[in-house]
Task: structure prediction
Amino acid sequence: MTLSDSDLELITTELGRELTPAEAALFENLWSEHCAYRSSRPLLQSFTTGDDSANDEGAEHVVIGPGDDAAVVRLPRVDEASETPIYITMGIESHNHPSYVDPYDGAATGVGGIVRDTLSMGAYPIALADSLYFGSFDRERTQYLLDGVVEGIADYGNAIGVPTVAGSVEFHNKYTGNPLVNVACIGLLTDERLVTAEAQSPGNKLVLVGNATGRDGLGGASFASEDLSEDAETEDRPAVQVGDPYTEKRLIEANEELITAELIQSARDLGAAGLGGASSELVAKGGLGARINLERVHQREPAMNAIEILLAESQERMCYEVHPDDVETVGDIAAKYDLGYAVIGEIRDGNYVCTFGDETVVDVPAGFLADGAPMNDLSATEPPTPEESTFPAIDAATAFNTIISTPNTASKRWIYRQYDHEVGLRTAMRPGDDAALIAIREAGVGLALSSGAVPAWTESNPYKGAQAVALENATNVAAKGATPIAAVDCLNGGNPEKPAVYGAFKDIVQGLADMCHTLSIPVVGGNVSLYNDSTSGPIPPTPTLALVGTKSTFDAPPAALTGDGTLLLVGHQSNNLGGSELLAQIGGTDKFPVLPSNPTAVVDSLARVANHPSTLATHDVSTGGLAVTLAELITSDAGARVTVQNKTSLFTETPGRAVIETTDPDAVRHIFEGVAPVVSLGDTTTDGTLTINIDDEDTANESPAVTTDAATVAKQRRILEDALE
Result:
């Protein structure tokens, strides 16, 4: 892409002259949608971020909100008398276009980038979550992309020693030409280790540490701001970076030593727009300028020109602001970890200036370059939503077997078994449950993490579907006994210049913001990825949310029955099938389920139940509805005999509900009294079978509507393994 005529006129008028080639390339990238959020920034004002303690719910936990490389959140402590606050960082980013062009490197460098965002705040990365979205699973291309993306995430994450503990995988035909790879990272730090991406003082040096700069990833920011073309796999390959996890691991450890020694004044990782993006944004945030000698940048390819040095997105690089007295020590630590190192310039008052040889190739106000892009004024049309129910009749047993055997409800064990999810010895609850649980022993709390979105929901009703995504993630952590405290989002959409696409995108932003506000969960940071459009059309609007909650222990009830309790269904139920996996399989339309009017009370009550000593197992109701929840709960040693009111109650995906196995049903009813219905489903068994009766069906022979067992369900849910192994 190139600068538009209007942008070029605005810039030349501001500068009072024509642009140099390097300046034009910098503005093209930093004023792209990917960097400047020109179509989305005005919409993001809807979110409660915790920045203003006078107005924002949840502000007591927020240390740094949106605008830095990662957000910083203060954890509640079991021992409130302790004087050392413990912080976590939260960040999320997308690597969508690169993962279509080169799934292995695209996904791997997505992990590397979000980890370096964590490093730039002074934190040590402790957990990753990946939310992945692909086209129809039966396509050979989809399986190729899935295999490459998972391998890229696994190889990179495992090599750097950061566990991938949570996430989600969704299949939908509208991702066929444009998959999504969204990766979140959690870091750990204390207040004295905190640094930011805000330049501190003129006279300090700018130091580049890490890999040498090559030509890989050139124009990555502008590439991410365009629709994918039919020949993207070959034509756009140079825009995809190539990662080196072993260098990243050394960079992680070097960064830890630099932070511990208090040698870093400010920091920014080199991501979109490379050195030009990182250094100009760092000084702009501090209201300062810089003078950079591009020839000092350590390079791995010969005869690189100024534009290549400025914009290459070579991986595993950090830009540090360092006091002059500390420069030599920083160099010694870089050498200790066998990392490249160069003093490339210094912080100054005035403009952002880059020289190359005897020529000044960039001389512009940093604030104008980093933040001067005008916002887009785009047309939006309201997306249609179903008003009537139209779907074929289907008996309960057929419907049950249909949805148990789909890729979206299939076991994702093939994916997460490739991840080292226990490295670091903090993972208290492994992948495969509603949420991961991480032991933060420094604060004496368990940190629950849930991440994902359901595109069928937001396609059915963008606004209500996005609300449901927020409630679903909050329910996931509550089902493990945790109280939500903060979230980050990755807002993915198609080409915003299409009114219908932009209308749906506006709705998911507002829906997510409204539900998070209702739940008093600050959205402390995030990422926007637009132009996820290809020859096969736009993706569904996809609001990935990564949400954390805390609890006072490191354990939680599992999503597996013990066979020793009674089964209860808690939460409000709506008898609508809109956005459900059942309708996706059999066809038809319906309104989206009605969401509870008191979601905060529901989430709080569920967390209390999960922590009650009588609770043996918990599992939320999500994709596939109650039928899939029950199927996932049974094991070879524990089954259930269940009765439900009607067939729809098995397959509606109303969020904010969970199945509880308990030895004290009255305690659960007491906790939910006046909050939400508690329905008795039946009893557990010790034979590994599941029988489901339906009250309002004509069952003259009195046989169950559904009968199955754990072995059959496990076989039905092996779709990914069977296809990919």
User: Anything to note?
Assistant: Residues 557-724 form a domain with the Phosphoribosyl-aminoimidazole Synthetase; Chain A, domain 2 fold (CATH 3.90.650.10). The mean pLDDT is 93. The radius of gyration is 26 Å. Residues 140-160 form the longest helix (21 residues).
